[in-house]
């Protein structure tokens, strides 16, 4: 953005929001508003954005190589809490986007998780419940997202998503999807665009 326009950075954790403020000062950014709101209700306070990046809170299964404690510190209930919150945050991010933006209407969803429940399943939920479609990320490397996993079929364009694995890409494990909002309707009856 080259310090133009308005950038809104939000974190529900007050200490992390303070760190965002420190980083904006360190980087000399003068176009940034930092908020400390629950992402599940963000669109109740602000909206009309051209673009949104959702760096969703997750289980952290993509960083096990750096933090082996992740393996023993998470259980099924933790994973369920994560994907429930991720769905709510992603739908709220979609609701905060202006679908008529001439330069945007895009939402990027990312996690540092390799679990399908936190990634493809969350994106499929958004496709089923909001008027959005998957578009190419523009990332030239990474593994395609799953269109089918253990008998569960996902949208065929899930292949546009990108998965990254430590053993293949020499990075932390993570997932990236890009969505385009095309209407304010609250559902997509087909589930497939």
From TrEMBL:
Record: active site: 112 (nucleophile)
Keyword annotations from UniProtKB, A to Z: Methyltransferase, RNA-binding, S-adenosyl-L-methionine, Transferase
GO annotation terms (biological process): maturation of LSU-rRNA; rRNA base methylation
Domain called SAM-dependent MTase RsmB/NOP-type: residue spans: 1-182
UniProt-recorded Gene Ontology molecular function terms: RNA binding; rRNA (cytosine-C5-)-methyltransferase activity
Residues annotated as binding S-adenosyl-L-methionine: 11, 38, 55
Record flagged with keyword Repressor: no
Keyword Methyltransferase among UniProt keywords: yes
Highest rank taxon of the organism: Eukaryota
A GO-annotated cellular component: nucleolus
PANTHER family, A to Z: 28S RRNA (CYTOSINE(4447)-C(5))-METHYLTRANSFERASE-RELATED, NOP2 YEAST -RELATED NOL1/NOP2/FMU SUN DOMAIN-CONTAINING
Family of the protein in this entry: Belongs to the class I-like SAM-binding methyltransferase superfamily. RsmB/NOP family.
Descriptive protein name: SAM-dependent MTase RsmB/NOP-type domain-containing protein
């Amino acid at each position: 953005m080259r310090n133009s326009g308005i950038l809104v950075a939000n974190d529900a954790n007050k200490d992390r929001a303070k760190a965002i403020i420190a980083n904006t000062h360190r980087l000399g950014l003068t176009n940034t508003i930092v908020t400390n709101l629950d992402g599940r209700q963000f669109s109740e306070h602000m909206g009309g954005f051209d673009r949104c990046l959702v760096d969703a809170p997750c289980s952290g299964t993509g960083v096990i190589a750096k933090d082996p404690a992740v393996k023993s510190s998470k259980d099924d209930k933790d994973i369920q809490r994560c994907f429930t919150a991720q769905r709510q945050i992603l739908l709220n991010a979609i609701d905060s986007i202006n679908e008529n933006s001439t330069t945007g209407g895009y939402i990027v969803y990312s996690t540092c998780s390799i679990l399908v429940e936190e990634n493809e399943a969350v994106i499929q939920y958004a496709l089923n419940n909001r008027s959005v479609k998957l578009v190419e990320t523009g990332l030239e490397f990474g593994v395609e997202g799953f269109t089918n996993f253990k008998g569960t079929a996902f949208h065929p364009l899930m292949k546009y998503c990108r998965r990254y694995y430590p053993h293949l890409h020499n990075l932390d494990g993570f997932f990236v999807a890009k969505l385009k909002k095309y209407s304010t309707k609250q559902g997509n009856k087909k589930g497939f665009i």
